[in-house]
Amino acid sequence: MSAGGPGGLGGAEEQLSKVEIYDTTLRDGSQQVGLDLTVADKLRVAAALDALGVDVVEGGWPGSNPKDAEFFARAGELEWKNAQLAAFGATRLPRRGVDDDANLAALLAAGTPIVTLVGKAWTLHVDEALRTTREENLAMVADSVAYMTAAGRRVVFDAEHFFDGYRADRGYALAVLDAAVAAGADTLVLCDTNGGTLPDDAARIVAQVAASAAARVGVHFHNDSACAVANSVMAVSGGALHVQGAANGYGERCGNADLFAIIAGLELKRGHELLPPGRLAELASTARTIAEFANLPFEARQPYVGSSAFATKAGLHASAIARRPDAYAHVDPGAVGNRQHVLLVRKIVGALPEWFSLDSYRLMIERSAAEDRSEAIVRLRVGDERVVAVGEGVGPVHALDQALRRGLSGFYPALSGIHLVDYKVRILDGRAATSAVTRVMLTSADSVGEWTTVGVSDDIVTASWEALADGVAYGLLRAGAEPPGAQQDVPLHLDNLTEKV
Ligand SMILES: [Zn+2]
Fold first, then answer.
1. DSSP state of 492
2. How many CB atoms lie within 10 A of CB 478?
3. What angle do CA 498, 499, 501 make, to 5 degrees?
4. H-run or E-run covering 359
5. Ligand 1: centre distance to CA 459 (Å)
6. What pLDDT, on a 0 to 100 scale, did the predictor assign at position 207?
7. How far is CA 421 from the centre of its chain?
8. What pTM does this model have?
9. Which long-range contacts (CB under 8 A, 24 or more apart) does 284-291 make?
10. How remote is the CA of residue 393 from the centroid of ligand 1, in Å?
11. Distance (Å, rounded) from C-alpha 145 to C-alpha 131?
């Protein structure tokens, strides 16, 4: 490949060192099983990514389904602040003209400044999947890229299965890139479509291609070898200036490269400026927001942004964490908008005063065509006093929560500032249906923050009550509520409590 071709970068050194962040959540990421975004969801995700400050948002494949075409039609409703929009599609069909290709027509109709064209770079796929000649595949790439550049589009060329193709037939894989660049592609994306490449190979191959490429080199990794983020970071070290990935690592099979971990790693550990100033601190909240739009559980162990990413079991290390938080975290959690959590252990919390204790509760669950309704009667002791309270709710846990609050409100006015924000149930051993253990995680909040309590029992109501009572007790501690009478120091079962500090 010759330097300074039509798609050559040119310009100053500083310009070259800018790594472009290209998000493919709405196209490749949405191939994940269980991820089904409506057009409205897609617009919300796009807005969140734009607000975070990624450079390119790939909106979808307008030639493949009407939903993606509708997304592009409505994308103009958004006020784009940072990102440019890309539409994705394949090169023209074999032995057909570019003017006679519905997919290319749909790509143009999407009206995006960037068009991403995917073409075959592995001889095996040209021979067996495309079933055409290798020369025709090169012509398909060249014709399609030229067609889009002639229409004024910036063309990103995704070289499908590039790493496998490079290993099988290096000359042909590079010829495919040459064809794209000669026709005007300004970015050549080396795709690890099967996700099998390991970091040393990724770095070596990217460096070899980048050394002679006449266009910006990019990468697109899948996580089938658990190396997608590592490969992406290594690729940038090897000269890649464009990285594709998906929010929270969404994608089919084992997922795409997690764009958020790539951004955090490159910014915090490699000194690249990828997002606009100040936006890295929005990483954790953006990750969580997109998980909500995607209606997928947010993985607590997700690097950098997960709620447990900086959680350390306290006890032995608690005082050291308080003194030197940097000694127990690889980066400052605040840099990515996350917080350091400490898991309290029984020993610490065992000295809590007892604000109330349970004598008994009784539940009535009424199910009818019109509505489900539950009623709870809770008998409590607060100091020397006995309290009976009734609560109603849409389910048994809601009714218990209402009864508990009603019973305690006269003693602890601070309760009015504490509310439930989340309730999750998990069966810990689903194989033994009759003896399954149920774990309830219940998140409560006050005006300052939130905390999660856990109840475990073979009965879902018992587990819920434990989590509920602990959540209220801990909220009263946070609120500085005065316990009744003399301190009794009876341990609560708060051994499974996490708190956001
Ligand atoms: Zn992919």
1. P
2. 17
3. 145
4. strand 357-367
5. 44
6. 98
7. 21
8. 0.70
9. 284/336, 284/337, 284/338, 285/337, 286/48, 286/49, 286/51, 286/52, 286/247, 286/260, 287/247, 287/248, 287/260, 289/48, 290/25, 290/45, 290/48, 290/49, 290/247, 290/248, 291/248
10. 47
11. 21
Torsion of CA 395, 401, 402, 404, to 10 degrees: 140
Low-confidence spans in the chain with pLDDT less than 50: 1-16, 315, 342, 344-349, 486-496, 498, 500-501
- How far, in Å, is the centroid of ligand 1 from the Cα of 222? 6
Of the chain, the percentage scoring pLDDT greater than 90 comes to 64
Q: What is the pLDDT of residue 2?
A: 35
Distances (CA, A) of 341 to 76, 287, 456: 41, 18, 22
- Residue 493, pLDDT score: 45
Residues 160 and 125: beta-carbon distance below 8 Å: yes
Can you tell me the distance from the alpha carbon of 373 to that of 366, in angstroms, rounded to the nearest whole number?
A: 5
Half-sphere exposure of 145 (CA within 13 A, CB side): 28
**CA–CA distance, 172 with 161 (Å, rounded to integer):** 12
Three-state secondary-structure class, residue 96: coil
The tokens describing 46, both together, are 């796009």
- Listed as own residue / partner, the contacts of 269-275 with beta carbons closer than 8 Å and 24 or more positions apart are 269/331, 270/233, 270/236, 270/237, 272/17, 272/18, 272/19, 272/236, 273/18, 274/19, 274/21, 274/53, 275/21, 275/52, 275/53, 275/54
Residue 224 CA to ligand 1 center (angstroms) comes to 11
Residues 6 or more apart in contact with residue 228 via CB below 8 angstroms: 192, 195, 221, 222, 245, 249, 255, 256, 257, 258
Distances (CA, A) of 499 to 315, 319, 340, 453, 454: 15, 16, 10, 9, 12
Give dist(CA 426, CA 129) in Å, integer.
43
The CA 447 to ligand 1 mean position distance, Å, reads: 43
Ligand 1 center–CA 278 separation, angstroms: 30
Question: Of the candidates 14, 25, 13, 6, which has an alpha carbon nearest to the alpha carbon of residue 220?
Answer: 25
Rounded to the nearest angstrom, the distance between the alpha carbon of 262 and the centre of ligand 1 is: 16
Q: How far is the CA of 297 from the centre of ligand 1 (A)?
A: 22
CA 165 / ligand 1 centre spacing (Å): 15
- Give the Cα separation of 422 and 476 in Å (integer): 18
220 CA → ligand 1 middle, Å? 7
Burial class (CB in 10 A: 0-12, 13-18, 19+), 301: exposed
Residues in the chain, total: 501
- Parallel, antiparallel or unpaired: strands 498-499 and 341-343: antiparallel
Q: What is the CB-side half-sphere exposure of residue 190 using CA atoms within 13 A?
A: 36
Q: Is the dihedral of CA 423, 428, 430, 434 positive or negative?
A: negative
70 token code pair: 């509708």
pLDDT at 461: 92
In degrees rounded to 5, what are phi and psi of residue 373?
A: -145, 135
